[in-house]
Amino acid sequence: MTGAGVTGARKTAAVTGVFAVLGGLVLAGCAAGPPASRPVPRAVTPSASPSPARSRGAAAPPEGAGPTDVYAADRPGMLSPVVKGFRSLVYVPNSESGTVDVIDPETYRIVRHFTVGALPQHVVPSWDLKTLWVNNNRGNFLTPIDPRTGRPGRPVPVDDPYNLYFSPDGAYALVMAERNNRLDLRDPHSMRRLRSLPLPCRGVNHGDFTADGSVFLASCEFSGDLVVVDWRTPRLIRRVHLGHMSMPQDVKLSPDGRVFYVADMERHGVWLVDAATYEVVRFMPTGRGAHGLYASRDSRHLYVSNRGEGSVSVVSFAQRKVVDVWRIPGGGSPDMGGVSADGTKLWLSGRYHGVVYVFDTRTGRVLHTIPVGAGPHGLCVYPQPGRYSLGHTGVFR
Predict the structure, then answer these.
(1) Fold exhibited by the domain 8-46+58-382
(2) How many CA atoms lie within 13 A of 153 on its CB side?
(3) Residues 6+ apart with CB under 8 A from 52
(4) Which pLDDT tens digit goes with each residue over 120-129?
(5) Where is the composition biased (Low complexity) (predicted)?
(6) Whole-angstrom Cα distance, residue 157 to residue 255?
(7) Residue-level pLDDT at 41
(8) At 22, is the secondary structure helix, strand, or coil?
(9) CB-based contact 377:333 (threshold 8 Å)
């Protein structure tokens, strides 16, 4: 969710304003999903697609990224030769402090601390795995980090970088320009803007790609929408409106490539969206403030951070249901993070508590609570297994 530097009152006001503008577009709903007697969220196909632009080096994803298991290259020990010499570290962007804390995952101690820019939201691995990018949202630049040393480099000007993804072929960096309601396609190295796609929604911020890599499905937090994008053209394929009570967050594709899971912070659960038709399959309650989504290293489970109640729901991909709930003793605000390279730990920022939580994925117990800066958000565990990065805090295939 955006706005680590925005108070709850301002956040509510912003969302209320958006709902007022949308007016008749919204659908009625409730916290546990739409009742059977009411309309399900609807898909809206644009009457006219944006003018196609020349595709820049678009190609099929690397061999093996098929629908059987899109996370097959993310197993423990399957580190790319590019990252095998990198020191294992956890990078925590502190949105309110404008800093990054670097944690040694062996000692659970902060080993480096440095200032970046205004409102750092996420730390994102580049497609080629060689760079980590700190998204300084309000500062309007990206700070590169050399993962070989854990040290920051010279900032690169980029407008409104709330979040960052990469096309499956590595040709583009996709900047989620949240306040500008725009998807910016940039050179993945220089970050020079090449083209932009205006979006018919408010607050675009998270997404994931289909198994074949051709389509990007993104969430729009402030208008309760999902947008389906052909990033190669680029053009909008469809808008899916989830309803006026929805606030969609993280997006994650199922291992078999058939379903997108979309966390909804206001509905307190996860939407299942068909990855072929983009129709909503159903809603699954998980916990208050459902926010971040992370696949286990064996592709069996999805970890859902419930920020509003201090818990993590464990969803079975095979059964498509919650099979366990891990609770933080005394409560907390688990937000964004990632799974350790060996799969035994889940690292999540404590957004409103100035801490990082470390869960044991075998028992669900909180092993460590580490104090960091104010407003920790999209932390990155690095390196992780995988051949290339699709962005966010670590989506690898």
Answers:
(1) Methylamine Dehydrogenase; Chain H (2.130.10)
(2) 13
(3) 233, 235
(4) 999 999 999 9
(5) 35-68
(6) 35
(7) 54
(8) helix
(9) no
The span from the CA of 127 to the CA of 131, in Å, is 8
Structural tokens at position 209: 């790609």
CA distance 69 to 296: 12
Whole-model pTM: value is 0.85
In the chain, what are the domain boundaries? 8-46+58-382
Give CA separation, 280 vs 83, 116, 219, 243, 270, in Å: 38, 39, 13, 12, 11
> 3-state SS of the chain: helix, strand, coil percent to 5?
5, 45, 50
Burial class (CB in 10 A: 0-12, 13-18, 19+), 140: middle
What distance in Å separates the CA atoms of residue 156 and residue 133, rounded to the nearest whole number?
Answer: 10
DSSP-derived 3-state class of residue 370: strand
pLDDT in tens, 274-303: 999 999 999 999 999 999 999 999 999 999
Distance CA 334, CA 256 (A): 27
Among candidates 358, 389, 314, which has minimal Cα distance to 80? 389
Going by C-beta distance under 8 Å and a sequence separation of 6 or more, which residues neighbour residue 268?
31, 32, 285, 286, 287, 288, 289, 290, 306, 308
- The answer for 357, left when phi > 0, alpha when psi is -120 to 50, beta otherwise, is beta
| Ranges in the chain, pLDDT < 70 | 1-67
Q: At 142, list the tokens.
A: 């990206």
C-alpha angle 312-287-119 in degrees, rounded to nearest 5: 70
Secondary structure in 3-state letters for 118-175: CCEEEEEECCCCCCEEEEECCCCEEEEEECCCCEECCCEECCCCCEEEECCCCCCEEE
Q: Sign of the CA dihedral 76, 335, 317, 168? A: negative
pLDDT recorded at residue 43? 54
Contact 358, 347 (CB under 8 A): yes
Q: Which of 384, 367, 332, 373 is nearest to 102 (CA)?
A: 373
**Paired residues of 108 in beta bridges:** none
